[in-house]
């Protein structure tokens, strides 16, 4: 099945703006939103991800541009960058852009754009402790992780673990369908624990405009 076989699968007004507690994000630097998207929309995205051709996925890497390498000792997921040209992917990008506008309006964060990829962690796959951005060395400001997994149980593992500045566990997040996590990309060290089942999510980053001389900083 190719991506062109799918119609748009979520409505632009589908996401629950009320569910996003911007005050929590401003105060703590992160927020966990249990019901960002309704079950049917999550299910549609999940079915889409599951049905994708294996060739639609690539081994995830670490670092950007010429620093980019795949290192399966660090991360073992497969990813697929979302594209506006692909209808089911475009609607998610539009939703996240609407959220960008909302966050800018409420928190004046000056978020400029957004990039994201689907991620598939097969059983046992992990992503070791890392930061998504290093202070002053990346234009990634705010990370979003949206989970697609129906009926995910504590026994299934695969938690996102977030750490505080002391290295103590701050949050252990089950990757349950409909849940969105937002956190400041250069503040929270986090990891993905191995799970028992295939784990699907959409991870993205809101970015500042780090353009130099009118050339927009390349994505990824
Ligand atoms: O899937 C998750 O819970 C987090 C993924 C992640 O940390 C990343 O892709 O940078
Ligand atoms: Fe990360």
TrEMBL record:
A Gene Ontology biological process term: cellular response to hypoxia
Keywords: Dioxygenase, Iron, Metal-binding, Oxidoreductase, Vitamin C
GO MF term list: ferrous iron binding; L-ascorbic acid binding; peptidyl-proline dioxygenase activity
Keyword Iron among record annotations: yes
Domain Fe2OG dioxygenase: 107-208
Cofactor(s) for this UniProt protein: L-ascorbate
PROSITE patterns: FE2OG_OXY
InterPro entries in the record: HIF_prolyl_hydroxylases, Oxoglu/Fe-dep_dioxygenase_dom, Pro_4_hyd_alph, Pro_4_hyd_alph_FE2OG_OXY
Protein name (record): Proline hydroxylase
Organism: Pseudidiomarina aestuarii
